[in-house]
Design goal:
This protein has 189 residues and is an alpha+beta fold. It is built from five helices and four strands; from the N terminus they run αααβαββαβ. The chain has helices spanning 2-35, 43-100, 104-107, 135-144, 169-178, and strands at 122-129, 147-151, 158-164, 182-187. The radius of gyration is 57 Å and the shape is rod-shaped.
Length: 189
């Protein structure tokens, strides 16, 4: 029994020691809490406002993610196909242009507004005008003879003219040769 009593007394002493230690710790916390400054009176409302701000930010990001998902859906399902069809349309137009355009051999031939052509058959004549011939006299002779200049002048003053063939070709050629402004006129071979 003695053994039981010694153990009981030893345990009881330890309990007292623990209780005493816990009391000292409580006292020191109590002293410490009295020395600490008191929280401001609006601390709770500030914490509540911070929580509400965080909740609002989370909702905004949620709404923003919904809008971004909607925009992404519109972009993927509506806009991209339109752009694809537009590119396909342009490609189709380019292909049709090349398909219906004239061959390259015809494209290399061109005519300017100054191309001198006469309807029907014509005869080319070499002609040299006198140095004192006026431009208006040359124009008048060519208009009356139904002729046009197709080349010239060269360094020697040689022009090549075309005269349309007709039943009066010989008369027109003789009129050109007999003109007072013509130095030389002869058929071109």
């Amino acid at each position: 029994m003695e053994n039981y009593t010694d153990n009981n007394i030893g345990d009881h002493g330890m309990d007292d020691l623990r209780d005493k230690f816990e009391d000292e710790i409580r006292h020191s916390y109590h002293d410490l809490s009295e020395k600490l400054p008191k929280p401001p009176s609006n601390a709770f409302s500030r914490i509540r406002d911070n929580i509400k701000a965080e909740e609002k930010q989370q909702q905004d990001s949620h709404y923003q993610s919904i809008f971004s998902r909607i925009f992404e859906f519109i972009n993927i399902k509506i806009m991209r196909p339109k752009i694809g069809w537009a590119v396909a349309g342009i490609q189709f137009a380019v292909i049709m242009f090349f398909f219906f355009s004239p061959p390259v051999s015809e494209m290399n031939n061109f005519q300017t507004l100054s191309v001198n052509t006469l309807p029907g058959k014509s005869v080319e004549i070499n002609i040299v005008f006198k140095e004192n011939a006026m431009q208006k006299d040359i124009r008048q002779l060519l208009n009356h003879s139904d002729a046009i200049i197709i080349n010239g002048p060269t360094e020697n003053g040689l022009y090549i003219i075309k005269v349309s063939q007709g039943h009066d070709l010989a008369i027109r050629l003789q009129t050109i040769r007999n003109s007072k402004i013509v130095k030389f006129a002869g058929a071109r071979y």
